[in-house]
Amino acid sequence: MHLKKLALRNFRRLRNVVVDLASDISIFVGANNSGKTSVGHALQLFTERGKFSVHDFSADQWPQMVAYGEGDANAVLPTIEADIWLEINADDIHRLVDLLPSLAWEGSLVGMRVVFAPIDSAATRARYAEARRRALEAVAGGEGLEFDPSPRNLQDYLRDRLNDEYELRHYVLDPTRFDANMVAQQDYAAMPLTGRDRSGRDILNGLLRIDFLHAQRHLADAPGSARAETLSRVLSRFYERNLEQKGEDLVALRALAESEVSLNEHLERVFEPTLQRLAQLGYPGLSNPRLVIRSALDPASIMSSPRGARVHYALGPDDGTPEPPTLPDSYNGLGFKNLIFMVVELLDLHAQWLAFEDNRPPVHLIFIEEPEAHLHAQLQQAFIRKVMSILALGAEDRTHYTSQVVVTTHSTHILYERGFRPIRYFRRSRAEHVSTSTVLNMSVFYDATDQDVRTFLERYLKLTHCDLFFADGVVLVEGNVERLLLPQMIANSAPRLQSTYLTVLEIGGAFGYRFKSLIEFLGLRALIITDLDSVFGPPAPAAGAEENGAAGAAPVKAGDEGAEPEEEDDDEDAEAGAEGAPGKVCIAGHPGAVTSNQTLLQWLPKCGTVAMLWAATNDQKTQARSEHCEAAVRVAYQCRTNVTWASETQALAGRTLEEAFALENLDWCQDIARKPLQLRVARPDNKDLTELTRRIHRRVQAKSFSKTGFALALLAEDPTQWAVPTYIAEGLRWLEGEIAPPAEPDDDGQGEQAVGDPVIAVVVA
Predict the structure, then answer these.
(1) CB contact at 8 A, 374 and 338
(2) Residues 582, 587, 591, 592: what is their CA dihedral angle, to the nearest 10 degrees?
(3) Is residue 740 part of a domain?
């Protein structure tokens, strides 16, 4: 048996989500404030006797509260709901008799709905009205005291009285009345869980135990902190709860008894002067007992005492030396202390669950928040790799019991250690002024994606450790040059992007299209900065040949999909001897040129010839969001711009970034001071614009040209002296508008607020 699905409605920003959980480990990822931790908090509130807050309701439900309090006939008091679905086998049915919807039930899913609902809505409104009346009367007689007293509305009233006015209700769910997305049929009404020997809460707690290992562990090196936690204290708790007790170890008892005699003699001698002075004051007297100091050497008290027993770290190899040199635990690094702390706490929680002798809940779910704190990459991977073995069950227990783990993390190292299947991606809402999230199950993407594509994606993401799942947007760039120059280009052309969270993937045009399915599934906003990659096209098709959007595309050799054509030597004309040879590199403006870039062919704008690519509109270059796909994607590649040289102007385009940069910064690049850029040709003043363009193309295509050298040399230049190529600047401004839209100015015209991010307010209660 294990917790299979959890549906939440009206809980914080989880307005209406279904979270699928793996039978062993699930990894929650997403941007900050996307609702990852809220899932655990919801389960905690629904299973334990925690207190809900009015702020636990989704923000769009607050107006309903206010409207109901004002007597709106169409308003109702909102509820918070959780549908808890357990997957069981034949051996578990006897445990879940109370949750079977009927004697005809078949399958492997059983469900319970828990609803946090008003006890009596009308009575709540009446009590609020009375409280409001008394508050207004209290201030009515005061002169000069004009203010609106609390409670100002029903929401304000429920802020302090919510748990008196609401209660938890439990229902049995019939899985046959739900679709695959766990959405109930329109006329379905769950059956109240009443008339049983046990309450709904007892039934649920008898099936599911939930524990938390919170992120704020406050491991401290310095003493004296009220919130500090040391390994000694953690191990003391673990000893007290789980380890062999003193009564079971006769050797320890004898050692303690001998020590107790010696210590009592010592205490009597030390305290004798003090006790004599007390006698001079009339204590103990005739009727008062006299004081005797005796030790109580109890193993648990020794471990729990702040100075009774301490964790030390032994130095050197473990060679059996009885007294190796040691250091206190405060001398070890925070990373190892955090790792040891988590392991001990997990063992403690696991042992407490196993300690149930009767009616042990069959499912133990542990939430681990951000285990990566203080851990370097290898430790993070080691922990997530071994966490399930730490909680391993014996062969007999595995038949009837299950340990499940949910990890919330911002660590790419943890994420890619486990691959796609355990990932649950929390995506924040795109809507303005609405704080909601959706939850995506990456195992669905894994199963629905072509094996070659998903293998490529998993291997690529694992190698690069990119932060795709935590970013506001993603930029796919052609190569190392774009990656190196992108921060400066953003600063020059789209500075508001510097305040957003971007991930940059260095992926060539040959493979960029393979990210299409992943970006669409995640609903990301993505900019693809790629190259035109112009090559000679095939001979003109015979009359009547079929034409399509990719007509004229260069043939691609098997095993060399989208490979970059051969580079030419600097001393040779890149077109010499290759005129008309399909697939060979050619200058962008060559008549009949096509693209070898698979991203432009298969994703956006799906055009094969360079002429069609130049004619493509912004709409053709953009994949807009739709009802069925939240992703917004824009492609940016070299297009013609007006280039002027020696009073001659032509509409030209480069084949690559380097060519486009040279053409759009022509005078600057041809200055002798720019020689380190490698874009200056010999005697440029003696050449017309056509010849200069051809020479720049030859230089960039030469084997001796260093793309990385160009990027590093450009970074050494004054960024205010050169212009960002137009195609990149336009793409970055599009992404800036998508991720960081201009905010409405304050009264003083200052400040911006990103969509979906909370405004910080200070409230004095």
Answers:
(1) yes
(2) 30
(3) yes
Q: Specify whether 184 is located in the same domain as 299.
A: no
Q: Same domain for 249 and 193?
A: no
* 664-711: pLDDT as tens digits: 999 999 999 999 999 999 999 999 999 999 999 999 999 999 999 999
Query: In a 3-state reduction of DSSP, which class is residue 506?
Result: strand
- Which residues lie closer than 8 Å to 164 by C-beta, 6 or more apart? none
Q: Do 99 and 246 fall into the same domain?
A: no
- Assessment of whether the complete model's pTM goes beyond 0.70: yes
- Is-contact 705 699, C-beta < 8 A? yes
Residue-level pLDDT at 236: 64
Q: What is the pLDDT of residues 530-580, one digit of tens each?
A: 999 999 988 765 444 444 444 445 444 333 344 333 333 444 444 433 466
User: Edge-to-edge, what's the strand order for the sheet holding 622-623?
Assistant: 502-506, 473-477, 525-529, 632-636, 622-623
585/142 Cα distance (integer angstroms): 87
Alpha-carbon distance values, 19 to 23, 115, 189, 380, 755 (Å): 13, 17, 22, 25, 24
pLDDT tens digits, residue range 197-234? 788 999 999 999 999 998 755 555 444 443 345 556 66
* Contact in structure between 354 and 394 (CB atoms under 8 Å): no
> Among 18, 729, 3, which Cα is nearest to 438's?
18
Q: Which residue has the tokens 């062969």?
A: 395
Residues 130, 258, single domain; the answer is no
The rounded distance, in Å, linking the Cα atoms of 494 and 502 is 13
Does residue 192 share a domain with residue 238?
Answer: no
Is the sign of the CA dihedral 339, 345, 349, 355 positive or negative? positive
Q: Is 119 helix (H, G, I), strand (E, B) or coil?
A: coil
Closest of 640, 564, 634, 629 to residue 604, by C-alpha: 634
Give the percent of the chain with pLDDT over 70: 77
Segment (H or E) for 169: strand 166-173
Q: Which of 197, 224, 247 is the last residue of a domain?
A: 197
pLDDT band at 32 (very low <50, low <70, confident <90, very high): confident
Q: Where are the beta strands (DSSP E) in 44-120?
A: 80-87, 109-118
User: Using an 8 Å Cβ cutoff, are 524 and 473 in contact?
Assistant: yes
- Let me know: does 204 contact 83? Beta carbons within 8 Å: no
The count of structural domains within the chain is 3
For residue 109 the two structure tokens come to: 């899913």
Indicate the residue among 260, 284, 310 that finishes a domain: 310
Q: Mean pLDDT highest for which of 102-106, 371-375, 550-554, 623-627?
A: 623-627
pLDDT at 343: 85
CA-CA-CA-CA dihedral for 373, 375, 376, 381, to nearest 10:
-100
- 473-477/525-529 β-pairing: parallel
CA–CA distance, 311 with 374 (Å, rounded to integer):
20
pLDDT (tens digit, 9 = 90+) per residue, 474-483?
999 999 999 9
Question: SS3 for 317-344, per residue?
Answer: CCCCCCCCCEEEHHHCCHHHHHHHHHHH
